Input
Amino acid sequence: MPGKHVHFDKTSTPQQPNYSISPPPFNQSGSPHAYSPLPLVETYIHPALRTAQGSSTVYDLRLPPDNAIVQYQVAEEAATNPPLPHMVITCPALGPGWAVKVEASQVRSGVTVLDVLSNVYQALRVSVSGAEYERHSQDNKRRVSSAFQHRYQNIRANQGESIEVEKARALEQSKGLKRVDFLGEMFMLGGLRHTHKGPEVWELCVRP
Output
């Protein structure tokens, strides 16, 4: 059974946004997650999304993208050069099956920095079932449980909006475990690293 401090969202079924969670192989014929790989072309990531050593963005992945330290005009710029119509973002810290497909919100500009931050945030907000939690080792359960508690207990007044902070924390606690909790203490954006599996496939790096 889950630890006494761990909760799972039983009140509603999360809405399905425009990204994929744990898809089968991307080139699997007939898969709803399959797509045609983009033509091979040398592609560069925006400086705001470079790996930690060169990134100009500071972002706690547990929080909405408007908490990221990034200039507004930069957020609206293309995430890659040349711009891409979509990107696929994986994250080794969440396992080999986890991936997010990010579609460009504005076709003309391609996927933007904000598109990346928004889609990753939404993907990490997906609820985790008790059955999935139970498949992990006891050590990993303790790590995830600790991350979950720290996440809702760290809600500050400016995040509580019109309701009291304690009520905001209780509300977040009631929503249960989220995918982001499986990052443990590695919840800061560390940038995107090219996987060389195609111009659109990038790896999400995380750091403490």
